[in-house]
Amino acid sequence: MASVSVKNLDLSFGDIKVLQNLNLEIDKGEFLVLLGSSGCGKSTLLNCIAGLLDITDGQIFISDRNVTWEQPKDRGIGMVFQSYALYPQMTVEGNLAFGLKNARVPKDEIEKRIARAAQLLHIEPLLKRKPAQLSGGQRQRVAIGRALVRDVDVFLFDEPLSNLDAKLRAELRVEIKRLHQRLENTTMIYVTHDQIEAMTLADRIAIMRAGAIQQLADPATIYNKPYNRYVAGFIGSPSINFIDGTIEVASDPVFKAGDTTIDLSRYAFSGNGPKPGAVTFGIRPEHIFMDKAATDEPFRADVEVDVVEPMGADTLVWSTLDGHELRFRVDGQTPLRKGDRVKVGFDPARASIFDAETEMRL
């Protein structure tokens, strides 16, 4: 079981700063997900930890051992890439054994490790097949198995499910979760731009933007208490509703946007309470209720249905509140059409409010 520590890490390509003074502590046995949009630096950070990129400044420790300038093969890590990169002329068994043979691992030990990996990944019937005879999900299992047989304490995954269709991604996501549960002493660092993968797999998520970590926390904290507006907008599908307005403070604080007034007396502000000024009010679509379900909510309003998106189990409804888009979910069997007038309601205590200038959560 190994911990990973990244201290004051900088990485530049010429005048372009990719990672800036980045610090990250990953606990032993933890499943940490690096999440962010393309170009945010998440894969670059993973490659630095793996030793595939030489950093400009800072240090990297694995199990309290400084590995900053060690070769990838000496760091005690196993890596799974987005591309399967399997040898087409070899069987699955040959692909799993290849690296171990080069490392001169004894034959009986190789057989033992392959049998263990095959059992964990449910690929025992595939060992005599070649990659061309496998589905995409099976090939990715083999790629994971190739890292697994190395018997290391830290696994690095670089968007391993991106090349799979939605059904296969969901299936393999569950398999990776089960794998981590079985290998409870193994640390895993997983890169993705898919927030569903991040939320379902992670013990903690590090959301990255422009080479820096915006928030590092467990999935529930990131979802319910995003550190800033960027994090709030990145997590959640469909994304959070943002309404620009102002806070006014008299006896009780209120949020105002056009003709809309929302009582904030139930809202838990940090620090010494709210100050008057421009803010952004954020409420997630799943926290907004319609018609009878909205009756007892502290805030209620009438809106007109603009777009209806049936999604099976539920329906996503697009409407407008004082010029701002307002999306909310209803049961999939609810009959709605464009132009319908409906009553919606929500509890402002479940909202996130951000300073308009700094975009930090209030």
UniProtKB/TrEMBL annotation:
Q: Tell me the SMART domains matching this sequence.
A: AAA (SM00382)
PANTHER family for this protein = ABC TRANSPORTER ATP-BINDING PROTEIN, MALTODEXTRIN IMPORT ATP-BINDING PROTEIN MSMX
NCBIfam families the UniProt entry points to: PRK11650.1
The record's listing under PROSITE patterns reads: ABC_TRANSPORTER_1 (PS00211), ABC_TRANSPORTER_2 (PS50893)
Classification via SUPFAM superfamilies: MOP-like, P-loop containing nucleoside triphosphate hydrolases
Per the similarity annotation, which family is this? Belongs to the ABC transporter superfamily.
List each copy of the ABC transporter domain by range: 4-235
Q: A Pfam family in this protein?
A: OB_MalK
Q: What is the lineage of its organism?
A: Bacteria, Pseudomonadati, Pseudomonadota, Alphaproteobacteria, Hyphomicrobiales
Keywords on this record? ATP-binding, Nucleotide-binding, Transport
Q: Name one GO molecular function term.
A: ATP binding
Recorded protein name is: Sn-glycerol-3-phosphate ABC transporter ATP-binding protein UgpC
KW ATP-binding (keyword) present: yes
